[in-house]
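quick q for whoever's on today - can somebody do inverse folding on this one?? i tried earlier but teh output was garbage lol. tokens:
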């Protein structure tokens, strides 16, 4: 299945096979493969969902414009997962632990979302998977992922012995040895010289990042194409970071932490972007299929895992600013209503507020995409600005 292992060893005989040694080539291959699978499988998945009447249930207290979406096929996140699975297996180096961490995180979160959708759509349980069980599944993944990264060597040397308590250290970027990063460290945006070593608390930190990101994307998934487009931008941002930080020359030039092997995550990112673009073909307004929790939790798991393996977890607040705003709007709305009995927004999450202000759905989606692009570009500037 893996073209790298099958064809790259033949490069001395057939020189064109040398292309499979380039991450960028395999990432492009994964992108196009995922897109083609999504385009081909999309109509089949939609017909299957329609045949079994697996349609969306619209909240009655939502905007009136959403009532016409009642019954639109949901669980379309299956199309995203299907389109990602094969390209990663074909184009990726499955021996790369960071690639597998991101890949398995996405699949795990997608399965949690699938169970939630199944209970809501098939079993007609209005609340779907009980919240505490959903969080338990998300935290279980985060704890396992955090522990693996915590006790696995970053640079292939001897196994690290992480400290117990968090600490902050300042590094000398002029010293080539300081380009390496410890297993339990994270970076601070715009402050390259400062690294926070979370010690054993890093494990819970990873769990919080994964659970928070997946639920944030889930809240954002309320308009046709909104979560898909914003997710594509976030994934592309972290893909660029993974490629640059996984190359020792770029890392040294940028005076950033060198992360051996993280460049392979670019292949996964390519597959994910291709799958999302293929899904967006059917999800663009007016959508003929919704991703459901299957897709939104999977996308959140992918973005969160990419932030973790690139050691840019805190940068999620900037790159994923749209997701953060959606979450904060819900938190503020609930807290203020409980305290005063009044609402801050006309409706939460934030995109519904703009709907009730009279903005068209397409205008909201495109403007949120633009904001996400600006935030993504700002996120990339942190690689150079300090």
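ok took a stab at it. sequence:
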């Amino acid at each position: 299945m893996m073209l790298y292992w099958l064809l790259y060893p033949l490069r001395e005989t057939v020189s064109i096979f040398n292309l499979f040694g380039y991450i960028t080539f395999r990432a492009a291959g994964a992108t196009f493969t995922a897109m083609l699978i999504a385009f081909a499988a999309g109509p089949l998945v939609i017909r299957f969902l329609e045949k079994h009447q697996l349609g969306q249930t619209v909240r009655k207290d939502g905007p009136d414009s959403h009532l016409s979406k009642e019954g639109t096929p949901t669980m379309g996140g299956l199309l995203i997962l299907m389109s990602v699975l094969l390209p990663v297996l074909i184009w990726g180096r499955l021996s790369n632990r960071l690639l597998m961490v991101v890949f398995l995180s996405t699949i795990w979160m997608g399965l949690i979302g699938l169970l939630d959708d199944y209970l809501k759509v098939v079993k007609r349980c209005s609340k779907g998977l009980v919240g505490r069980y959903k969080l338990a599944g998300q935290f279980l993944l985060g704890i396992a992922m955090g522990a693996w990264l915590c006790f696995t060597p970053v640079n292939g040397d001897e196994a690290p012995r992480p400290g117990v308590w968090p600490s902050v250290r300042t590094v000398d970027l002029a010293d080539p040895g300081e380009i390496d990063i410890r297993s339990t460290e994270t970076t601070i945006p715009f402050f390259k010289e400062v690294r926070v070593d979370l010690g054993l608390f890093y494990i819970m930190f990873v769990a919080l990042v994964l659970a928070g990101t997946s639920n944030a994307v889930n809240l954002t998934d309320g308009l046709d194409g909104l979560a898909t487009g914003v997710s594509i931008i976030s994934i592309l941002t972290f893909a660029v970071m993974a490629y640059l930080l996984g190359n020792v020359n770029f890392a040294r030039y940028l005076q950033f932490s060198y992360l051996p092997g993280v460049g392979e995550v670019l292949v996964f990112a390519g597959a994910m972007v291709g799958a999302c673009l293929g899904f967006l073909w059917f999800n663009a307004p007016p959508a003929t299929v919704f991703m459901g929790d299957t897709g939104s939790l999977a996308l959140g798991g992918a973005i969160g895992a990419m932030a973790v393996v690139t050691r840019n977890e805190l940068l999620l607040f900037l790159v994923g600013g749209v997701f953060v705003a959606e979450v904060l709007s819900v938190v503020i709305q609930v807290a203020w209503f409980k305290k005063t009995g009044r609402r801050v927004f006309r409706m939460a999450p934030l995109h519904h507020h703009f709907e009730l202000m009279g903005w068209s759905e397409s205008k909201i989606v495109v403007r949120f995409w633009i904001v996400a692009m600006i935030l993504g570009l700002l996120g990339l500037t942190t690689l150079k600005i300090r």
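fwiw Residues 107 and 298 are 6 Å apart (CA to CA). also Strands lie at 167-170, 185-188, 191-197. so keep that in mind when u check it
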